[in-house]
Amino acid sequence: MQSYSPYEIIEAKPTTGLVLLADHAMNRLPEEYGSLGLPEAAFQRHIAYDIGVEHLVRRLSAMLDAPAVLGCFSRLLIDPNRGEDDPTLIMKISDGAIIPGNHPITREEWDNRLNRFHRPYHRAVAETLQRSAIASGGAPLVISIHSFTPAWKGVSRPWHAAVLWDNDPRAVGPLIQKLEAPGDIIVGNNEPYDGALRGDTMFRHCMAPGIPHALIEVRQDLISDAAGVAAWADRLAPILAALNTRPDLHRYERHPSRTGAYDI
């Protein structure tokens, strides 16, 4: 059996002060899990990963010389963007697809997936943020990249991109302003999802310690091929570079979460 890493760290320049995250970058499974009982076609769908994100983050990392952490396992195995006590951490059904390999599941296997995949990924994120903070002398600016489907339950989504956030507006306001400035795209503000999710990656690594951050969602049909990835990298890179020059986006400043009081 080949060794399997649950994460990949792109080791760019930590002094940049910018860190990119891609929780759902890949649709892979260790070979012992087979396909979790699903048809192979399921792993080309959004239920398995965020389409286009891996290539977009790799390109942005190279353009910005920014470190990045990529999740290397499918969200169907366990979702790194959920807290350990979230009932949707290991899904039994996702967008109509029943996942036989996830139900029934023993407590032992649940803990095994936490220990082999979820926790190592989050340790890699924490260590990368710490290296950036030490090297740059301030809080890193964290940008998490995701993608969303062009339609949901038969209803088209008009947004080209979205910015999701909880209650720390520092990076969000200027990011939305810069995305909207050219006037050629529709940008969702906490649409089509709300960014306040207790225990998720942004809550755990940014909200709780007071690190400036934002989560960017790009519509999947816009980054599903090389041309789309290149276009969106060219759009996002100068925006992120400009945000990264702001001193106020490199300070620790804890904001209350809309999900309730911190317990970490």
Report on the structure:
The model has no long low-confidence stretch (mean pLDDT 96). The longest helix has 30 residues, at 107-136. This protein starts with 6 loop residues before the first strand and ends in a 20-residue tail after the last helix. 29% of the residues lie in helices and 16% in strands. The protein has a single domain (7-250), classed as Zn-dependent exopeptidases (Aminopeptidase). The chain is of the alpha/beta class and 264 residues long. GO terms for molecular function: hydrolase activity. This is N-formylglutamate amidohydrolase. Keywords: Hydrolase. Pfam families: FGase.
What attributes characterize this protein structure?
Aminopeptidase; hydrolase activity; 264 residues; 5 helices; two-stranded antiparallel sheet
Quick overview of this protein structure:
This protein has 264 residues and is an alpha/beta fold.
What name is given to the CATH topology? Answer: Aminopeptidase
Count of discrete structural domains: 1
Bulk shape: globular
Q: Give the tally of β-strands.
A: 11
- Determine the number of helices (DSSP H or I, runs of at least 4 residues): 5
Outline the biggest β-sheet: 7 strands, mixed
Strand coverage percent: 15-25%
Series of secondary-structure elements, N-terminal to C-terminal: EEHEEEHEEEEHEHEH
For the terminal residues, how far apart are their CA atoms? 37 Å
Structural class: alpha/beta
User: Would you identify the regions where 5 or more consecutive residues have pLDDT less than 50?
Assistant: none
What is the name of the CATH superfamily?
Zn-dependent exopeptidases
Looking at the overall shape, the CATH architecture is 3-Layer(aba) Sandwich
Mean pLDDT: 96
Task: Indicate the CATH class.
Answer: Alpha Beta
Helix content: 25-40%
**Rg calc:** 18 Å
Strand order of the main beta sheet, please? Answer: 1-3-2-6-11-9-10
Protein name: N-formylglutamate amidohydrolase
InterPro entries: N-FG_amidohydro (IPR007709), UCP029730 (IPR011227)
Pfam families: FGase (PF05013)
GO molecular function, one term: hydrolase activity
